C-alpha cells in the first residue's frame, strides 16, 4: 500500500515588528486557495514576513538586485510534494499598497497568491502569454477570496 502523503503544512513567520501584519490563519487560507488550482495539496511552505534589510539581502543574494522587493519565491520541489518558501518584505508591501490605493490586506493576499503560483511553476517573465495566464488565475483566486482585481489600478 502506498504511503499517504501529509497535507500541505504552511508555516508563517514574522521576522519584523508591525501591528498590521495579517494573522496566520488568513495567510494560510490565501496560500491554500492558490494551491487548490494545482491539485497538489501536499507539501510544506513557509511564508515569512521580513524587514527591508532582510528583503534586500535575499534579493541581492538570489536575484542579484540590490534592493528589497515585495515578494520572493523559493521553490524547492514540485513533485511529489510542493516545498518552498515565500518571503514578503513588509515595508515594500505597505508602500506599494499606499501608492496603488489598495488595502494592505488585499495587497498581502495578492502577493501570497502570486508567490504560491510561482512555487507551483507559474512564471510571468518568460512570455506575455504566461504573464496573462498567471494574472487571470490570480484574479480568479482573489475574486473567490472576496478581493478586487489586483491589476485594475495598473496601466
TrEMBL record:
Binds 1 zinc ion. Its EC number is 3.1.-.-. The keyword Metal-binding applies. Keywords: Cytoplasm, Endonuclease, Hydrolase, Metal-binding, Nuclease, Ribosome biogenesis, rRNA processing, Zinc. GO terms for biological process: rRNA processing. Signal peptide: none annotated. PROSITE patterns: UPF0054. Its main location: cytoplasm. GO terms for molecular function: metalloendopeptidase activity; RNA endonuclease activity; zinc ion binding. It is found in: Cytoplasm. InterPro entries: MetalPrtase_cat_dom_sf_prd, YbeY, YbeY_CS. GO terms for cellular component: cytoplasm. Pfam families: YbeY (PF02130). Zn(2+) binds at residues 114, 118, 124. The keyword Cytoplasm applies. Belongs to the endoribonuclease YbeY family. Single strand-specific metallo-endoribonuclease involved in late-stage 70S ribosome quality control and in maturation of the 3' terminus of the 16S rRNA. This is Endoribonuclease YbeY. The lineage of its organism: Bacteria, Pseudomonadati, Pseudomonadota, Betaproteobacteria, Candidatus Accumulibacter. The gene is ybeY.
Amino acid at each position: 500500500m502506498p504511503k499517504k502523503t501529509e497535507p500541505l503544512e504552511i508555516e508563517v513567520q514574522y521576522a519584523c515588528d508591525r501591528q498590521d501584519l495579517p494573522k496566520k490563519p488568513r495567510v494560510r487560507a490565501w496560500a491554500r486557495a492558490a494551491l487548490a488550482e494545482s491539485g497538489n495539496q501536499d507539501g510544506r511552505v513557509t511564508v515569512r514576513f521580513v524587514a527591508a534589510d532582510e528583503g534586500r539581502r535575499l534579493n541581492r543574494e538570489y536575484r542579484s538586485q540590490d534592493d528589497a522587493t515585495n515578494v520572493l519565491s523559493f521553490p524547492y520541489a514540485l513533485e511529489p510534494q510542493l516545498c518552498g518558501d515565500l518571503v514578503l518584505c513588509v515595508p515594500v508591501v505597505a508602500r506599494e499598497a499606499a501608492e496603488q490605493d489598495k488595502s494592505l490586506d488585499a495587497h498581502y493576499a495578492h502577493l501570497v497568491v502570486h508567490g504560491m503560483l510561482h512555487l507551483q511553476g507559474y512564471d510571468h517573465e518568460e512570455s506575455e502569454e504566461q504573464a496573462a495566464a498567471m494574472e487571470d488565475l490570480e484574479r480568479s483566486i482573489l475574486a473567490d477570496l472576496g478581493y478586487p482585481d489586483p491589476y485594475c489600478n495598473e496601466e
